[in-house]
Structure formats: structure tokens, C-alpha cells
Amino acid sequence: MFKDRLDAAQQLAHALLAYRGQHPLILAIPRGAVPMGQWIARQLEGELDVVLVRKLRAPHQDELAVGAMDEHGNAFIAPWAHEVGADAAYLDLEKARQMHTLRQRRALYTPVRPPIDPKGRLVIVVDDGLATGATMLAALQAVRRQAPAKLVCAIPVASAHALRQVQELADDTVCLSTPDDFQAVAQFYRHFPTVEDSEAVAVLGAQLPPQF
After folding, report:
1. How many domains is the chain built from?
2. What range does the domain containing 189 cover?
3. Which of 73, 108, 143 is the last residue of a domain?
4. Distance between CA 147 and CA 197 in Å, rounded?
5. 18 and 123 inside one domain
6. Cys-Cys crosslink for 130: which of 36, 114, 158, 196, Cβ 3.0 to 4.6 Å?
7. Which residue numbers delimit the Phosphoribosyltransferase domain (predicted)?
8. Neighbouring-strand partners of residue 138
9. Do the Cβ atoms of 45 and 61 come closer than 8 Å?
């Protein structure tokens, strides 16, 4: 159980200390991981940026991800997606909805912090937790296409199934906890407020540590 995202970020930064001094690029998955990413970047003497991905929601189950996509339209679809009603026609509509959001978010974030090229860099992709792992899988695939020197996945908590999946795509995976009773990321935080776009934009443009 983590007190909040700051607590999780502090513990995760400690677990990532081996990468300190290597000028890592910390890529946070918006929105929840952006304040975490700033803390980790400062502790590891690295840079902060975002990797824009969106989960693809199951029909009538907004919290269940049947896949995810990046801002270039590349998508990861869970092999069981059709079992919950996410057929090809539904997925096309859902992709269009999420692409609209991704374009809005890029337009909002880019004036504050132009994208940093991960090519040839040590890149650490951070999120506040993995349930299905779909969003992290899409993020790792998106970053891998940009040829980083090393790709690290870092999360405070994950389901065992999600962790196994991301380990196949990352060169190194740092996960603090894989509880047997995993149901949702929020259950492992005492305080887990929504991070709004305005806060993420402020963090990306800030020179001081974020306020949690």
C-alpha cells in the first residue's frame, strides 16, 4: 500500500538508483504518472517527457482496457477483446475517439514541452500501476520504434499477468509489488486523486518539485 503517488515515486526512484548519472529520459504516461515522472527524473538526474498513449475501452466497461494505441495510430489489441464485445467495427470507433483525445493532448502539451527524441537514450517509461498492462505495452512499443539505447519499464504495482507481458518488451523491468489480490491500481493507494491535464501541463513546465 502506497500513501500516494509521491510515496510511490520515492520508492520507485530508490529502486532505479542504478541508472542515476546516466542522464536517463523519463517518459511518463499521462496523466497520473506525470508528477511521479518529475520526481524520478530529479532523483536520477535525468529529463522528463511524456509518451502519449490511450487505452481502448471495452464496450460499456470504461475501466476495462481491451487494448491501447499511441499518437501515431499504432495499436495493441488484447487477443480476448472480441469476448467482451469489442469487434472490429467497435474497435475502429474506439480508436477514432482515442485518437481525437491524443491529438488534443499533444496540442496542449507540446507548447509547454516539445517532445524529446529518445533515440540512443536510456529511456525509463513510468506509470502509476498496471492492471491489464495494455497502456504500458503500447507505450513500450511506441518508444521502441524510436530506437532507444535501453528501454526500462518502471511501475510501483502491477498484476502478475500484466508484468509478464511488459517484461517481454522492456530490456529491464522494475516493479515494486505484484499482489495476488490485484483488482485495480487504485486499491494500492490510500490517496489516489485524478491528475488533470492542467496539472500535467504545469508539471511539465515547472522548475520546482510537484506538489502532491
Report:
1. 2
2. 5-52+119-205
3. 108
4. 28
5. yes
6. 158
7. 10-189
8. none
9. no
